[in-house]
Amino acid sequence: QVQLVQSGAEVKKVGDSVKISCTASGYSFSRFYIHWVRQAPGQGLEWMATINPNTGGTSSAQKFQGRVTMSRDTSTSTVHMELGGLRSEDTAVYYCARDNSDSTSSWWFDPWGQGTMVTVSS
Amino acid sequence: SSELTQDPTVSVALGQTVKITCQGDSLRRYYASWFQQKPGQAPVLVFYGKDTRPSRIPDRFSGSSSGNTASLTITGAQAEDEADYYCNSRDTTSNLLWVFGGGTKLTVL
Question: What is the pLDDT of residue B95?
Answer without folding.
Answer: 58
